[in-house]
Specification:
The protein is α+β, with helices and mostly antiparallel strands. It folds into two domains: 1-21 and 103-154, Thrombin, subunit H; 35-102, no CATH class. It has four helices and seven strands; from the N terminus they run H-E-H-H-H-E-E-E-E-E-E. The chain has helices at residues 2-5, 24-34, 39-58, 62-97; strands at residues 14-20, 105-110, 113-118, 121-126, 132-135, 139-143, 148-152. The strands form two sheets. It has a four-stranded antiparallel β-sheet with strand order 1-2-3-4, with no helix packed on it. A three-stranded antiparallel β-sheet has the order 5-6-7, covered by helices on one side. Helix 2 packs antiparallel against helix 4 and helix 3 runs antiparallel to helix 4.
Length: 154
């Protein structure tokens, strides 16, 4: 299913092989892409903020108004801080500390899934085990049950 969505035509053979080396900036961008809300998550977030503010302005007790406004401000600030400050800092530290993040990776795409090989080992993600994936103009982020992989779009 994901293979077809990515524009890959599957037939039980190796579709392509890529050799990839992600830079620190690409790794940080992948982290930000992972934490980006989907349209459904944005909708729920906006509904929560609007409901909190509506509660604040319709409630008579001032303490409840402050709590509702504080909750809305905290939700917005928390999202911005985690996505734009915390996640990039953690990704930068991970990239610098773990040698395996800087090693070249060979990626094999087939009709059954994706296989990753590097000097530290190999990993397979079957198409049916992919639980979510995200993409932007530069990266594709594939999340399996226990693995997450970033691919640069050429």
């Amino acid at each position: 299913m994901v293979a077809k969505h990515l524009g890959l035509h599957c037939n039980r053979i190796l579709i392509c092989k890529l050799n990839l080396l992600l830079t620190q900036q690409e790794y940080i961008k992948a982290s930000k892409l992972y934490s980006k809300y989907t349209a459904k998550e944005y909708f729920v977030f906006i509904v929560y903020v609007i409901a909190s503010l509506a509660f604040a302005f319709t409630n008579v007790k001032q303490i409840y108004q402050f709590m509702a406004i504080g909750g809305s401000i905290g939700a917005i600030a928390g999202y911005v801080i985690v996505r734009h400050i915390y996640a990039p800092l953690v990704a930068k530290r991970q990239y610098q500390e773990y040698r395996a993040k800087k090693a070249p990776i060979s990626i094999y795409v087939s009709s059954t899934g994706i296989r990753f090989e590097s000097e530290s080992g190999q990993s397979n993600i079957e198409w049916k085990r992919i639980i979510k994936w995200r993409q932007n103009e530069q990266l594709i982020l594939i999340c399996g049950s226990f693995q997450t992989a970033s691919l640069r779009i050429f």
